[in-house]
């Protein structure tokens, strides 16, 4: 009798430990908390056209154009290769063909030169968490380092992280003219629409060039 | 299981290698702010867009120019990395109160592309006033042209952000036209073999500097960066964990009750 009881209790203990472990894994796997749906930043104001004799109307350090090859985001333990992204026939942006690789949109400035450079990565893809799975967990000031073909590493700092409905994507704020070397990191978020097979929102992290290494 | 997966990895890796960004230049749209020069009262905005095929699309909107008059306009600078910028009045070396084109050139560089409305766009067309845009009766000027890559000097697209736009034509004696009474005869035109051209027609009215840059070809809509394939994983783990805990609790309860009942019966 006692032996039978001991066995039962051991099984119960194993189940309890396994259950607790499963819940811990579940907690770890939980998608990163997302910012609320946000209004895009106001259109960047360009310098007033009042004075003459200016040397520059732009802000901050600017690098010459050079294609990006690798992205590092220490806060997210991200260190991945970069591929090029064009447009699909319907005019939307291409996306990487695997969960890990990050894509650089080639119809935009290169990271570190004047204007918004655009990187896109999956939040998840084909059963694996994507490189940008925790993009929404970035904080202002977090570093994003982009290695370029010319050997220069452009170091950016995150300035804001927003969530937008895809059907109201703020193209002006994300892709429009800016007076500095900027970076936009894009992934998916929000509600997942099973019927369309797509998330309804995009997470966009904005960053500005702070220096080089 | 493992073998076919490895087989799959090879073409995927190859495709990735092929897709790695090459030295091809990024499409981008460079924004230029045209600032008043020589107290002309004129200003404007311009956009230079490098197109997929290497052509350059130029769009200029200016206001406050001499009405009903043609305004010579050029891209100034060079593709050799020289650091040109827009001049201030200190460039007026002869002290006549106006920075002439010759006085401005050391600051903003030589003519790189002539922004004519049709035909040749080389430096040789710099004073081709018959092919330069004309401001309307209110002094507004609107210019749109796409210059084929073959007609652009080497390095134009690569150095878009190093170039300056200069629009010429001022009205020193405020009579809404170019005349010799304003500033006399143009020394620039004269040295080019054209006599009787007023200096007013060739002195710069605005100088444009790069003020920003944008994505060259804006993608449609949002970005499809996720297929939801791991989004329910946490819930699955929570479910399994919860079931396991319930089962453990059940076993404990059943075992204890049974032993309780048994021990009581034994008494």
From TrEMBL, chain A:
Transmembrane segments: none annotated. It comes from the Bacteria. Residues 31-51 are annotated as: Disordered. The keyword Signal applies. The keyword Signal applies. NCBIfam families: class_F_sortase. This is Class F sortase. Keywords: Hydrolase, Signal. It comes from Paractinoplanes pyxinae. Residues 33-43 have a biased composition (Pro residues). Residues 1-23 form the signal peptide. InterPro entries: Sortase (IPR005754), Sortase_dom-sf (IPR023365), Sortase_F (IPR042001).
Automatic annotation (TrEMBL), chain B:
Keywords: Membrane, Signal, Transmembrane, Transmembrane helix. The chain crosses the membrane at residues 235-254. Residues 1-26 form the signal peptide. This is CHRD domain-containing protein. It comes from Paractinoplanes pyxinae.
């Amino acid at each position: 009798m006692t032996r039978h009881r001991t066995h039962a209790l051991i099984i119960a203990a194993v189940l309890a430990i396994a259950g607790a472990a499963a819940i811990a894994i579940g907690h770890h796997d939980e998608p990163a908390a997302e910012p609320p749906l946000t209004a895009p930043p106001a259109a960047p104001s360009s310098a007033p056209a009042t004075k003459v004799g200016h040397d520059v109307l732009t802000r901050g350090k600017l690098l010459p154009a050079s294609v990006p090859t690798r992205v590092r985001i220490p806060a997210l333990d991200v260190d991945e290769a970069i591929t090029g992204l064009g447009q699909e026939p319907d005019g939307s942006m291409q996306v990487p063909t695997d969960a890990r690789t990050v894509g650089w949109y080639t119809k935009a400035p290169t990271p570190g030169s004047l204007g918004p450079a655009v990187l896109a990565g999956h939040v998840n893809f084909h059963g694996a968490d994507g490189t940008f799975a925790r993009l929404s967990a970035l904080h202002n000031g977090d570093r994003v380092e982009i290695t370029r073909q010319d050997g220069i590493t452009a170091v950016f700092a995150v300035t804001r992280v927003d969530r937008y409905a895809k059907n109201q994507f703020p193209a002006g704020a994300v892709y429009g003219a800016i007076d500095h070397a900027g970076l936009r990191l894009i992934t998916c978020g929000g509600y997942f629409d099973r019927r369309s097979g797509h998330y309804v929102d995009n997470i966009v992290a904005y960053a500005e060039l702070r220096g080089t290494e | 299981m493992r073998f076919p997966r490895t087989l799959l990895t090879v073409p995927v890796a190859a495709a990735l290698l092929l897709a790695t960004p090459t030295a091809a230049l990024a499409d981008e749209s460079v924004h230029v702010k045209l600032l008043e020069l020589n107290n002309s009262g004129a200003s404007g905005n311009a956009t230079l867009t490098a197109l997929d095929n290497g052509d350059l699309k130029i769009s200029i909107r200016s206001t406050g120019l001499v009405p009903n008059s043609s305004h010579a306009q050029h891209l100034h600078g060079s593709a050799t990395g020289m650091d040109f910028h827009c001049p201030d009045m200190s460039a007026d070396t002869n002290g006549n109160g106006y920075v002439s084109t010759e006085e401005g050139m050391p600051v903003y560089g030589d003519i790189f592309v002539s922004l004519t409305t049709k035909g040749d766009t080389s430096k040789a067309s710099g004073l081709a006033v018959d092919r330069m845009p004309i401001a309307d009766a209110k002094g507004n000027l609107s210019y749109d042209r796409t210059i084929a890559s073959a007609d652009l000097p080497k390095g134009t697209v690569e150095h878009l952000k190093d170039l300056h736009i200069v629009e010429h034509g001022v009205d020193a004696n405020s009579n809404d036209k170019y005349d010799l009474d304003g500033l006399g005869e143009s020394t620039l035109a004269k040295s080019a073999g054209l006599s009787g051209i007023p200096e007013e027609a060739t002195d710069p009215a605005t100088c444009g500097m790069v003020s920003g840059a944008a994505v060259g070809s804006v993608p449609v809509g949002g970005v499809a960066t996720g297929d939801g394939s791991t989004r329910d994983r946490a819930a699955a783990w929570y479910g399994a964990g919860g079931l396991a805990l319930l089962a453990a609790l059940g076993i404990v309860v059943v075992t204890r009750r049974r032993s309780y009942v048994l021990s009581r019966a034994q008494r």
